[in-house]
Structures are given as C-alpha cells and as structure tokens.
Amino acid sequence: MKKLFALILSLILVLSLSVGALADAKARNLDEIKQSGKLVIGVFSDKKPFGYVDEYGEYQGYDVYFARRLAEDLGVELELVSVDAPNRVEYLTSAKVDIILANFTVTPERAEVVDFALPYMKVALGVVSPDTALITSLDDLQGKKLIVSKGTTAETWFTANAPEVELLKFDTYTETFNALLDGRGDALSTDNTEVLAWAIENPGFTVGIETLGSLDTIAPAVQKGNDTVLTYINQEIEALAAEQFFHADYEATLKDVYGDAVDPDNLVVEGGAIE
Fold first, then answer.
1. Which of 102, 101, 110 lies closest to 85 in space, CA to CA?
2. pTM of the model
3. Of 72, 92, 71, whose CA–CA distance to 83 is shortest?
4. What distance in Å separates the CA atoms of residue 143 and residue 215, rounded to the nearest whole number?
5. Strand 221-223 versus strand 114-116 pairing type
6. Is the Cβ–Cβ distance between 176 and 202 less than 8 Å?
7. How many CB atoms are located within 10 Å of the residue 154 CB?
C-alpha cells in the first residue's frame, strides 16, 4: 500500500508540473511565427456564420475570412484550431494558438488575462425563443430556463444582472442550440448577431429581445504581453480599412445569412474605430 500511495503521489506531482508548464507556456513572437512558416489561430467550428466547418470539412465564416487574410499578409501558412467558448483563454495562456479569432467579446475581466487587439465587430446580447412561447422581456424569463454557453458574456451578464433567471449551461454552441430545439430550455441567449442568424435559419423561433446589456466589441486576442503579434494585428486592422475589408468580409460570409434583417454598419467595425 505504501508503494501504491507513493506512486499515486508521484503521478499527481508529474501531472501538476505538466499543467503548470502548459499554463506558463510562452507564446511565439512574430519573428518566430515567420520563421516557422505557419500562423496558428483558434476559431469556432460550430458557430455559424462566424466560425464553422462546412459540409466539405472546410472552415468558413466571418472570423475565418479574417484569419486567412492575416496569414496571407504575413506570408505564412494558416493552421486553424477548433476552440470552444470556455477554453479560449486557456488556448492562449498555454500557447496552443498564436491568436484567438472566435467571436471573442472584449470585457475588463478577460483583458486582465489576455491582450485584445482593435475591434472588428460590435455586438450586444440577444434572446431567441419559440414563437409559441415568445420571450420579449426579462420579466418573461421569470420562472423559465435560459440556455447559455459556458464562458460567454451571456452567462456573465445574466449571473450578475438577473440572478433570478435559471441558467442551463452547456460547453459548446451546438449543445446550446440543440437544447433549445429539444425544448430543454425556454429561451437561449448569446450575441444578438448569432441568435438573429440562427432564427433566420430555423423557422418557428424568433429573437424577441434583440438588444440586451451594453454594446460590446469583438476583437482578436493574444497571450498577455505578446506585443509583436498584437502590433501586427492592429496594423493590419488599421491598414485594411482603406479597402473596407470587413464590409467585404460581411458580403462574403454574412449577407446571405442576414439578408435585409441586419444593417452591416450596425455590426462591422473598420480600422478598429467605433462610430
């Protein structure tokens, strides 16, 4: 028994050291990325139309379109890595990716652990629910179950501002929307851009609350202190304004989804400047 106990303690120590090493891993600077010939960017694989894998197994979406341009202008290959909302920060702090481009809302709490570049999109929260029991106000959520994804601004906002609302939490966006379709919750909240797109593709559901909370911004993120990569992203965002890059991104990836339901100027940010 003593030998077994000692072995278990040794394994725990090794695992702890391994986790600590990953948590403290230093991100690659811009020169190291160039020398490697590859830029590694974390994106969603299940959050259409911002980051998703299509029927051919290819990554597509608003974030992916920008990721490809970042790698192209840097003159390197692009490697896309699938992330979920709860692990976006961990993928940066453990240096699994160089950049996160996963519909990442800027918040003061997140800015303490990662560095955000200039924004390329603006967003608020929205709430989608079945037409047969449409949620149009916070009062309608009393006594109801609200579906959210872990690690999102929706989870944070409702926890802080509407603690009386029961939250049903899932790890991935696929799980959250499946839970709404299955009737396990009464409504779902995430970025209004996302719920508007989802409701358009899913008849029988409507975004009854289109804007909730403050207007937020979406931005790329890098490991804290990775100044060379951060500077590169910011310079790209500023330079791309001359060609209205993010409006072109919208036309290529979002227009067919939103149609006339969304004014691009209410979503797109050019040059990192919020108007």
1. 102
2. 0.79
3. 92
4. 27
5. antiparallel
6. no
7. 29
**How do residues 119-153 score in pLDDT, each as one tens digit?**
999 999 999 999 999 999 999 999 999 999 998 99
Mean pLDDT for all residues in the chain: 91
Residues 154, 144: Cα–Cα separation, whole Å: 16
Query: CA 88 to CA 100: how far, in whole Å?
Result: 7
Domains present along the chain, CATH in parentheses: 20-120+219-266 (3.40.190.10), 123-216 (3.40.190.10)
Distance from C-alpha of 95 to C-alpha of 36, rounded to nearest angstrom:
15
Q: How confident is the model at residue 158 (pLDDT cuts 50, 70, 90)?
A: very high
How many whole angstroms separate alpha carbon 178 and alpha carbon 175? 5
- Tens digits of residue pLDDT in 2-17: 444 444 444 444 444 4
Read off the tokens for 154.
């929706």
Any alpha helices (H) in the chain, and if so which ranges? 2-23, 30-36, 62-74, 88-93, 108-111, 153-161, 173-181, 192-201, 227-240, 245-253, 255-258
| Model pLDDT, residue 193 | 86
Structure tokens at 189: 């909240």
